[in-house]
Amino acid sequence: MQTRKVDVAIIGAGTAGLGAYRAAREHTQNVLLIESGPYGTTCARVGCMPSKLLIAAAEAAYHHRHSDLFGVASNNPHIDGRKVMERVRNERDRFAGFVVDSVEGFPAEHKVRGKAKFISPHRLQVDDDLIVEAQRIVIATGSRPNTPPFLKNAGDRLIINDDLFEWRDLPSSVAVFGPGVIGLELGQALSRLGVRVRMFGVGGAIGPIQDPDIRAYAERIFNREFPLDPDAKVSSVKRTEQGVAITFQDKEQGEITETFEYVLAATGRRPNVDNLNIEKAELQMDARGMPVFDRYTMQCGDSHIFIAGDANNDLPLLHEAADEGRIAGDNAGRYPDIRAGKRRTPIGVVFSDPQIAFLGLNINQVKERCRSCYAEGVVSFEDQGRSRVMGKNLGLLKVYGEQGTGLFLGAEMFGPAAEHIAHLLSWCVQQRLTVSQILEMPFYHPVIEEGVRTALRDLNSKLHLGPDVIERCLDCGPGA
Ligand SMILES: Cc1cc2nc3c(=O)[nH]c(=O)nc-3n(C[C@H](O)[C@H](O)[C@H](O)COP(=O)(O)OP(=O)(O)OC[C@H]3O[C@@H](n4cnc5c(N)ncnc54)[C@H](O)[C@@H]3O)c2cc1C
Ligand SMILES: NC(=O)c1ccc[n+]([C@@H]2O[C@H](COP(=O)([O-])OP(=O)(O)OC[C@H]3O[C@@H](n4cnc5c(N)ncnc54)[C@H](O)[C@@H]3O)[C@@H](O)[C@H]2O)c1
């Protein structure tokens, strides 16, 4: 067994690990990046990018099918599943290729392939042939799908997101377990591409939605396209000759059995910490078996070990992994002289249609922080001018503010252009603007942001800082 002594070892060459590597190199050239899987990152290979490519194809099919609304006749689109999947794979390979190229440009002595695990707080074993003695260590091992055991009955027809992006053609039907972020994005896209989809959830959750009104609204809208039961009663899942037979309680028909070609497990992800021999790192662990860490420094306790990205299970999103990786790498490089890194206002977007977005504090966090000293403003997009013009007039936005200070705290949305509105509003939260200050900003006409203004005016009046919202405000322009 070979031994290498390094200043900083980074486990995982995903987004967080690569950020950590670049930041650590500002302090030392004696760095080692350890990767057990393919280079290219989860985001580019099997996550953000291929999922958005599939959604783009689904949007094209959907617009084609719905152009009748505008008097533009269209025939039912012919969906060539082989071409859909070919574009997904080709573009995905292009994105992942950029990452692979840059990792290949790193000096050979800075990287090693193999699975790392702790053998002591400063020592890692990589496969069976290398011991790494590291002054400091960054854990950036990402996450993996957490599939419930009963789904294993689907046998070879059980798939996860990684498998889906390898398809050569679209299947006829897919049962999606988990109406979370991945389930909604992939399930709705498949449905729009002509695949028969049924979605099963537990406990009533839909994506990351916290507000009960928005959740109920979203459930109703998704059910117009494909059956989605967020609290399904499934009694059996069986691999049969025809595919996978699922027996469940249907709201109208009682117990029924439906057969699907595939079962997609989208039931959440678990951090890759349990397979690291983490107990040998001698860190303080929380009740879930996760290392206790500081989200500003990424340091585990007061140790020489840092944890970043999906591995820490805090905010499993790409931009957070990138920020956390940089903070962890910088601090691993400069240890023990560590610094607090910049954390941004929380923001999340689900690329369903309508999109789901959240930013700042959610309603539960608002209640916890402000007790009863908060107010919420609301707007429906059903009659909102620009949304209606575009035939995208579905959805709800709720905005939250603090009584007394008038501070804008956060928002949750299911509606048109939510990805853009979430950015505008998260920038307002980060700038610590009050609701009145946001309302002083320009609003063009006719735009979807006028709907945001209505919600903010509603909030301002409930904070007793402005007049009531005028219904059908004439000087705002028609449909504002
Ligand atoms: C289908 C899907 C869609 C998504 N869409 C979005 C989106 O639209 N927007 C968004 O913000 N986020 C999205 N995400 C989440 C985002 O992809 C992740 O938050 C992000 O990729 C996490 O980066 P990471 O560096 O923590 O992990 P990863 O990129 O997974 O990197 C971890 C690396 O560690 C390696 N590793 C693990 N264990 C070991 C070990 N013991 N030894 C050596 N190496 C090891 C792994 O092989 C892997 O390469 C999506 C995720 C999925 C699955
Ligand atoms: N657009 C984006 O930003 C984006 C896209 C995809 C993934 N992601 C990230 O990846 C993470 C993981 O996504 P995910 O969708 O796997 O997790 P998730 O936590 O969003 O959703 C999992 C869903 O599965 C349900 N579930 C759990 N057990 C179940 C069971 N036995 N049967 C049926 N349903 C069950 C849960 O109630 C939940 O609704 C997300 O939290 C997100 O951070 C982000």
From TrEMBL:
<keyword id="KW-0274">FAD</keyword>
<dbReference type="GO" id="GO:0003955">
    <property type="term" value="F:NAD(P)H dehydrogenase (quinone) activity"/>
</dbReference>
<feature type="active site" description="Proton acceptor">
    <location>
        <position position="445"/>
    </location>
</feature>
<feature type="binding site">
    <location>
        <position position="52"/>
    </location>
    <ligand>
        <name>FAD</name>
    </ligand>
</feature>
<feature type="disulfide bond" description="Redox-active">
    <location>
        <begin position="43"/>
        <end position="48"/>
    </location>
</feature>
<keyword id="KW-0520">NAD</keyword>
<dbReference type="GO" id="GO:0050660">
    <property type="term" value="F:flavin adenine dinucleotide binding"/>
</dbReference>
<comment type="similarity">
    <text>Belongs to the class-I pyridine nucleotide-disulfide oxidoreductase family.</text>
</comment>
<keyword id="KW-0547">Nucleotide-binding</keyword>
<keyword id="KW-0560">Oxidoreductase</keyword>
<dbReference type="InterPro" id="IPR001100">
    <property type="entry name" value="Pyr_nuc-diS_OxRdtase"/>
</dbReference>
<dbReference type="GO" id="GO:0004148">
    <property type="term" value="F:dihydrolipoyl dehydrogenase (NADH) activity"/>
</dbReference>
<keyword id="KW-0285">Flavoprotein</keyword>
<feature type="binding site">
    <location>
        <position position="268"/>
    </location>
    <ligand>
        <name>NAD(+)</name>
    </ligand>
</feature>
<protein>
    <submittedName>
        <fullName>Putative pyridine nucleotide-disulfide oxidoreductase, class I</fullName>
        <ecNumber>1.8.1.4</ecNumber>
    </submittedName>
</protein>
<dbReference type="InterPro" id="IPR004099">
    <property type="entry name" value="Pyr_nucl-diS_OxRdtase_dimer"/>
</dbReference>
<dbReference type="InterPro" id="IPR036188">
    <property type="entry name" value="FAD/NAD-bd_sf"/>
</dbReference>
<feature type="binding site">
    <location>
        <begin position="141"/>
        <end position="143"/>
    </location>
    <ligand>
        <name>FAD</name>
    </ligand>
</feature>
<feature type="domain" description="FAD/NAD(P)-binding">
    <location>
        <begin position="7"/>
        <end position="325"/>
    </location>
</feature>
<dbReference type="InterPro" id="IPR023753">
    <property type="entry name" value="FAD/NAD-binding_dom"/>
</dbReference>
<feature type="binding site">
    <location>
        <position position="310"/>
    </location>
    <ligand>
        <name>FAD</name>
    </ligand>
</feature>
<dbReference type="InterPro" id="IPR016156">
    <property type="entry name" value="FAD/NAD-linked_Rdtase_dimer_sf"/>
</dbReference>
<dbReference type="Pfam" id="PF07992">
    <property type="entry name" value="Pyr_redox_2"/>
</dbReference>
<dbReference type="Pfam" id="PF02852">
    <property type="entry name" value="Pyr_redox_dim"/>
</dbReference>
<feature type="binding site">
    <location>
        <begin position="178"/>
        <end position="185"/>
    </location>
    <ligand>
        <name>NAD(+)</name>
    </ligand>
</feature>
<feature type="domain" description="Pyridine nucleotide-disulphide oxidoreductase dimerisation">
    <location>
        <begin position="349"/>
        <end position="455"/>
    </location>
</feature>
